[in-house]
Specification:
This protein is an alpha+beta fold and 427 residues long. The protein has two domains: 23-253, Rossmann fold (3-Layer(aba) Sandwich), CATH 3.40.50.1110; 257-344, Immunoglobulin-like, CATH 2.60.40.10. The protein is built from twelve helices and 20 strands. It has helices at residues 32-35, 39-49, 66-69, 73-80, 99-105, 107-120, 139-142, 151-168, 176-186, 202-217, 232-245, 250-253, and strands at 7-10, 23-29, 53-59, 85-88, 125-129, 172-174, 259-264, 272-280, 284-288, 294-298, 302-308, 313-323, 326-336, 355-357, 364-368, 375-379, 385-389, 395-399, 406-414, 417-425. The protein has a five-stranded antiparallel β-sheet, with no helix packed on it. A five-stranded parallel β-sheet has the order 3-2-4-5-6, with helices on both faces. Strands 17-16-19-20 form a four-stranded antiparallel β-sheet, with no helix packed on it. A hairpin with a 7-residue loop joins β7 and β8. Mean pLDDT is 89; it is low at 1-19 and 340-351.
Amino acid sequence: MSKKIFFILAVFLLSATVYGQEEKRVLFIGNSYTDVNNLPNLVKSIANSCGDNLIYESNTPGGCTFMQHCQNQSMNLIRQGGWDIVVLQEQSQYPAFPDGQVAQEVFPYAQQLVDSIYASSPCAEPMFYMTWGRKNGDHRNGQVFPPIGTYEGMDSLLALRYSMMAEQNDASLCPVGRVWHWLRHNNPEIELYQSDESHPSLAGSYAAACAFYTLIFHKDPANIRHEAGLEPPVAEAIRSAVQQVVFDSLSHWLRPQPEMSVERVDSMRYMGESFQLITAHADSVSIAWGDGNDTLLIAPQSQAIRHTYSDTGSFVITLRASRHCLFTELTWIFTAMEEPTEPESIDSPEQFAIKIAPNPADRQVEMTFPQRPLTVEIIDAQGHTLEQHHPQGNTYQLNTSHLTTGIYLVRATTDKGISTAKLVVNQ
């Protein structure tokens, strides 16, 4: 009896496709850039137009800094807990100031706010609100610090500093400033600023709201129907910019997911499984060995793992890497035996691979399996099984015309194990 090991990856993918209404509880912390045109309510109206719901609260005193938010009502709101997302917007100029000043007056308070968010709502997602450079730069402060004296200089520094805050604090980043940058270069006829050349016009706030909806709900802004009173061509151009800047690079703007891989270190594992575990962005890894025993590893990065079984048989091993309520799973089947009845062998994953063509799919795809599967399931990015099929042979024609554009998981179950493959649908 040869030992066969099958890998089953629980894939958590970002996709345009999310079925049914979603509801998110969001706290907006900022100042007049968030308050003007009532940005939170604008995001809510956009969500409603897509069949989703946003429940929000906000604290947005004019000119308020992160330092001040650490001492005002914002902290009370954060400590209430129960938030899905907390949006953080710094005073419009501070993040573009010289390095030393930002290091003392911005970064420590950004960290304090994020730490409080995770302490009060462990599953919440902190999200920094990247703002924009002033229309013609910050002339007054540019006399002392020339880099912010122009739009390009100020905008690039804001983009850099907000990116640093998101990376350093395990937070997502809503790149509103990058959307404005794209619109200024590609649709200069759209006025994003009020007459003060700083605060957002209705079009500017609409661009921010579309970006937030896309990032909060992970959905394509092309489906947004609310136009906030803007001329339809203007609203459409703004949604197109958000699609290209935000949605097409969604994973880049979201906080990192836990990552995990396994490297085998021993081919003679008759009664025990051995491997080298490698992780990134994971606070812990739990291992269920399939025999009633579990192992919990705290903050592993690279670690040799071994487990010995007391009985022979096949065991499903499941590893889960977790961080901030996000997780990734890796599963395979291990067969424990006292003595091999034939030379030890490990079948390569390619032998159990599902072949899909064409992929990306348009209307129909052909799936080829290593052996006839008992069932074939189509699973969406949220882990919902949408369809189940029972092929009569090793190939199966799947009609994809009814599936929304997005990424799906194909899971085939055979009498030897489970194989998975990614299916991309482009309608």
